[in-house]
Design goal:
The protein is an alpha+beta fold. The protein contains 3 helices and 2 strands. It is flat.
Amino acid sequence: ATYVVCTKDESLAPDLQELFAVRAATVERMESGHSPFYSMPGELARLLDRAALAAVDNGTSVNGEQGEGQ
């Protein structure tokens, strides 16, 4: 799983997000407020695309488990 920490989030403090993120296999950070899908949709889409491609390359599913045939 990938966690995206929004470093300029004023709704959910980035320090708290970092605590949640420790459970994720990958942590990405964006200089974004609470809603990067509104403020930075292109950058977020590229980040999610990279994360999805990395998961496929590693043979893992979106929840971090090994996919079929792995």
